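Input record (one chain):
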Amino acid sequence: MLETSARLLRLLSLLQSRPDWPGPELADRLGVTTRTVRRDIDRLRDLGYPVESATGTAGGYRLGVGAALPPLLLDDDEAVAVAVGLRAAAVGSVSGMEETSLRALAKLEQVLPSRLRHRVTAMQSAIVPLTGPGPAVDANLLAVLAAACRAHEGIRFGYQKHVRRAEPYNLVHTGRRWYLLAFDLDRDAWRTFRVDRIDGPPQPGPRFTPRPAPAEDLRAFMSEALSSAPYRFQAKILFLAPIEVVAEHTSPAAGRLEKLDEQSCLFYAGAGSLDQIAVYIAIKGIDFQVVDPPELREHVRALAARLHRAGEEPDD
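The corresponding structure, as predicted from the sequence alone:
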């Protein structure tokens, strides 16, 4: 059995990991009785954590919104600074930190008092970021979508002049864009939605039981959905280099890599034209062979001839 202080930290971590917890399930996770869970909940409340409870068959515990910031070893100014920093990182100002920042932001904003939310929003509106080539995404929208994914709460939103009803599953960042992986209730299929194309904040819908993931390898599924499926032309390329080397020169949004052996790998990609694929694979600086489609080989030969002519000395 865990000591009381360690058990309280474990209990708090469980309450932060999902919206609702039945008392017996918490007791089972902690290895204690439901009576001990009730006492520990009271201790958390005494420390300032806003733990809500409900009775009956659907009863349980959840971490609510507090009237005051719980003792997270942060004062008000520090909490505002952390929230603003996480919002900035969530929209891509820190490479590789976007999804981690969004998860941390969702946890922090869950217990952030309203007076501090206003300060965060005011400070964020005064910041003018010099962003990269990707489309801008509202950090508030990302936070709402992340919370819906975490709470298994359905959403209704405008998307390219249509209204969608979906069960959100996960947010994915490719380095330039944010995507929402969700089950589209109207099309009865898994879909990826560009977050920058979602029109306004989504409307909350009913809670849902999570469906099985669309694939065991979610990274490969998303790579396939974003890089090949939407395009007219599909290509299969053999790179004569280890997959680790090729991975440094591409991204999951550009195509899907598959290890063949220690010295080669396959690359699956799509594009609006075969010329685009030819240029993309040629500029990698890695030896390759076209597997499919056969007509892509002609485009590669034409590109090679054009580059050869461009490298010749100009006529006097």
